[in-house]
Amino acid sequence: MFYMHDNIVINEGRKILHIDMDAFYASVEQRDFPELRGKAIAVGGSRDRGVVCTASYEARKFGVRSAMSSKKARQLCPDLIFTPVRFSAYREASAQIREIFLSYTDLVEPLSLDEAYLDVTENKKGMISATEIANQIRQDIFDKTQLTASAGISFNKFLAKTASDIQKPNGYTVIIPKHAQRFLDGLAIEKFHGIGKVTAQKMHHYGIKNGQHLRNQSQEFLAQNFGKSGLFYYNIVRGNDLRKVNPTRIRKSISAENTFSNDVSLLSEIELQINNVTEMLFERIEKANLLGLTITLKIKYNDFTIASKGITNSDPLKSCADYKKLALNLYQSLSETQKPIRLIGLKLSNFVSDSDQKQYSLF
Ligand code: TTP
Ligand code: MG
What we know:
The strands form four sheets. The protein has a five-stranded mixed β-sheet with strand order 7-8-3-9-10. The protein is globular. The protein folds into two domains: 1-181, Reverse transcriptase/Diguanylate cyclase domain (Alpha-Beta Plaits, 2-Layer Sandwich), CATH 3.30.70; 253-351, DNA polymerase, Y-family, little finger domain (Dna Ligase, domain 1). The protein is built from 13 helices and 14 strands. It has helices spanning 24-32, 57-60, 70-76, 87-102, 130-145, 157-164, 177-186, 197-205, 211-215, 219-236, 267-288, 320-332, 354-362; strands at residues 3-5, 8-10, 16-21, 41-44, 52-55, 81-83, 108-112, 115-119, 149-154, 172-174, 253-264, 292-301, 306-312, 341-351. The chain is of the alpha+beta class. Bound molecules: thymidine-5'-triphosphate (TTP) and magnesium ion (MG). Magnesium ion binds next to strand 3.
């Protein structure tokens, strides 16, 4: 049952939280290495790739951001301290916060290691106020992990997600139905979750700079210029987001691919690119904490024909080096190796279940 309220379609009066850890990797590092506390630090930036995963809030004051090259980060903040990525520590904290979420509701949908949606309309503590729940969760997280989180509290996913960013770090924002339209109208277009840089630029080009401008556009105009997403924008700017918190989102595969601006044909270059794509994939596998048995290499040639080759192992591979070796073997086993290459992709699928995973890790 949905009903209308101030032109906003309300999703059965759900109480949705979005909880997101503050400067997650950097906060874990500052917690575990007290000498880093209060300092501008960047996690990542290892020499082979040189990209910042995230920066402490002290470093953000200088403009250091996620996905920035380490070189640029160092220019902005000469005293920046780089620390290596320690996935196992982040995974441990992630498991702890997930356990806390599950003590409130089973309707938990993790989006990554450090954030999740929770539907707390009905909750295990019998609490009425979603705000109170959010703040109790933030306190539980702090007590258990000594880390802070921010929360967005609203009646749909889009608003909750947008809200959790507003009072970061260590804060919370509530958007009640009555205030949703005013909030959305005033929201800068680049703050809409799901509207990326490129789309935001395109919107600016049409004079759409905030929610109100967006709401003035017809469904037809948005569909014509932004395709399927256009309809999504049409709805969310009216506070209309009926997506359910989906705790059973099961991932079937995880992949990485790279399309080259210039076709690649030298064997040494191809090997280098296969290694790059494999590193991208391995990073995602580690982040998602998944083990899988089937690895598939996909090559798109400059004439747009596609070749792919997969292999299923009896045990999951563990190291990036193993993945690289296998990806190169798959490439060598392709029959066509003369044509220049446009795209290289690598995919892991056939995941082993949780209990199997435990068995594998025992060996
Ligand atoms: P985010 O939640 O986007 O960022 P954050 O937790 O570091 O900071 P904020 O306080 O703004 O939420 O991402 C969570 C973690 O994911 C982040 O700590 C590191 C990792 N990450 C990357 O490795 N690369 C990226 O480009 C981004 C955005 C995040
Ligand atoms: Mg975060």
